[in-house]
Write a structure and sequence with these properties.
This protein is mainly α. It has five helices and no strands. The radius of gyration is 25 Å and the shape is elongated. The mean pLDDT is 84.
Length: 135
């Protein structure tokens, strides 16, 4: 066997061992931690599905704004294109709201710390960009 062949087989062999070793001891592992393992698996699945749901919803809202609202409703009525900065700020707000909802609804944590931190960051950015925005 050449070095190239061994190199190409190295990663699959590694992952085979990573999954084979727990598979050999799976029965004893299940008996020891079955109820806790199942509960944790369900909780992790709930976190993954909830997070993906809210991020997909935010992506859908952003896409609807880009495809329908900006060009058909607002730009057609105004007669000129909306500045990219405004579009990006609206996207940022939508993603921030989605992250806040994920923290609050999916992980069931308080978002007051996130709101306070984002307020401070917004204040600092506003003061730092004041002259650039004025131009």
């Amino acid at each position: 066997m050449s070095a190239e062949t061994l190199k190409r087989l190295g990663v699959p062999i590694f992952f085979l061992l990573v999954f084979l070793i727990p598979a050999l001891f799976w029965d004893s592992l299940i008996l020891q931690v079955s109820s806790e393992l199942i509960r944790r698996s369900i909780q992790i699945g709930r976190y993954v599905i909830g997070t993906c749901l809210w991020l997909t919803l935010a992506w859908f809202v952003i896409r609807c704004l880009d495809v329908v609202v900006w060009p058909l409703c607002i730009e057609r009525r105004l007669g000129y294109a909306i500045p990219r900065l405004l579009k990006d700020l609206v996207r940022l707000v939508i993603v921030a709201v989605a992250i806040g909802v994920i923290i609050s609804m999916v992980f069931e944590q308080s978002v007051t710390g996130l709101l306070a931190a984002s307020g401070v960051v917004g204040l600092v950015l506003g003061l730092a960009l004041r002259d650039m925005i004025a131009d």
